[in-house]
Design a protein that fits this description.
Blueprint (H helix, E strand, L loop, with lengths): L21 H8 L9 E2 L5 H11 L11 E7 L1 H15 L6 H9 L6 E7 L9 H21 L3 E5 L7 H6 L7 E11 L23
Antiparallel strand pairs: 1-5, 2-3, 3-5, 4-5
Helix pairs in contact: 2-5, 3-4
Length: 210
């Protein structure tokens, strides 16, 4: 097995509160999702993906709820699920043949696709919203981990993240919903930088009201 990351220390081990690293700062400043149309083989294999998911799960998680889980699509399962997605798409009002064909190929755009399921528990103490945010952080962390290991990735939702029949197809429980699909593979084209927000219009400083 190719070792992608160092082993974590035992629980209770004192950890460094900061890890200053210019390479990491550069990595974050230049981060860019891959184009979903230009992801090819190879993607992470089963062992490599297991390591990526373990690292991706190192996200803020109030009360250690683990409010997320994963559904992995690799190999033939991508096409088999795509056929079911096409069946669902074909039943929608106004559906056209193109919609059905597009649905078949959704999960074939990358060799590895991970559906991240937000799975919160309403325990009366830990806000469900916090748990859902943790699932979103995990999606991003998975992209960062994969990118740092040399794979391109993109986080997508599309209609298959908001369809009750798809939820049933994937075995989601009543309290669960899809945080998104993470497509992972080898980027075959360079993504272009996009326009970034002007931060001055998005940041305010709080002052005590008069």
């Amino acid at each position: 097995m190719t070792k992608l990351f160092p082993n974590p220390p035992p629980a209770g081990t004192a950890m460094l509160p900061t890890r200053p690293a210019y390479d990491v700062r550069s990595f974050l400043a230049l981060r860019k999702s891959a184009n979903k149309l230009f992801l090819s083989e190879p993607g992470p294999n089963e062992d490599e993906l297991a390591q990526l998911l373990e690292v991706a799960a190192r996200v803020p998680d109030h009360r250690k709820m683990n409010p997320w889980r994963f559904i992995v699509f690799q190999g033939d399962s991508r096409l088999e699920c795509g056929k079911e997605l096409a069946r669902i798409a074909g039943k929608k009002p106004g559906a056209e043949e193109r919609d059905v064909m597009d649905a078949v190929g959704l999960l074939l755009r990358a060799p590895t696709v991970v559906a991240v399921v937000s799975s919160p528990t309403d325990d009366g103490r830990t806000p469900v919203w916090e748990q859902e945010l943790s699932a979103g952080a995990l999606c991003y962390n998975l992209l960062l981990a994969a990118n740092a290991c040399g794979w391109g990735g993109v986080w997508l939702s599309e209609w298959i993240a908001f369809d009750k029949e798809v939820d049933a197809l994937l075995g989601l429980r009543e309290n669960e919903r899809l945080a998104g699909y993470i497509y992972l593979g080898t980027a075959t084209a360079h993504p272009q930088e996009r326009i970034r927000p002007e931060m001055s219009g998005l940041v305010t400083k709080w002052t005590k009201p008069d």
